[in-house]
């Protein structure tokens, strides 16, 4: 499969062919439809997490994802092939990230079904699954959250919404 990898840290991520993961016991295999790049991914490639977590090379970067369950490993419960899901890769090591065609994640945490009305692209940009808030979240809630965290650029501004500073909550 194709994935965005680094072979050492610090290192520049590059697209490479790597072995497609398989769902191990307690995991689901997700065919990734959308993912996002965030500060954690940049810190990983820059080597800032080198002494904090085990690194397995070639290291596929990426944490946030959305896609469709392709397979369910033995003992994994709550998901079936074809389910639209999103979440965050939550493993005790770095190396099996979401900036790839497929990703495996534990079925017990870091993954949730995509709420009705939310498309996979938006879900992949959020990557907040695994919190109790998603039990009652709907597409309108997500749209409001995206507008808060990533406001549209001001007229005449060359900044992208992702480079805009996050607004601070008033006290």
Primary descriptors:
alpha+beta, 9 strands, single chain, Quinone Oxidoreductase, Chain A, domain 1, 171 residues
Number of helices: 3
Using only CA atoms, what is the Rg?
17 Å
N→C terminal distance? 48 Å
CATH class: Alpha Beta
- Proportion of β residues? 25-35%
Biggest sheet features: 5 strands, antiparallel
Low-confidence stretches: 129-136, 141-171
As a percent range, the share of helical residues equals: 10-25%
Shape: globular
CATH architecture: Alpha-Beta Complex
Assign the CATH superfamily.
Medium-chain alcohol dehydrogenases, catalytic domain
CATH fold-level assignment: Quinone Oxidoreductase, Chain A, domain 1
Report the structural category: alpha+beta
Elements, N to C (H/E): EEEHEEEEEEHH
* Count of individual beta strands: 9
Mean pLDDT equals: 80
Strand order of the largest sheet: 8-3-5-6-9
Total count of domains:
1
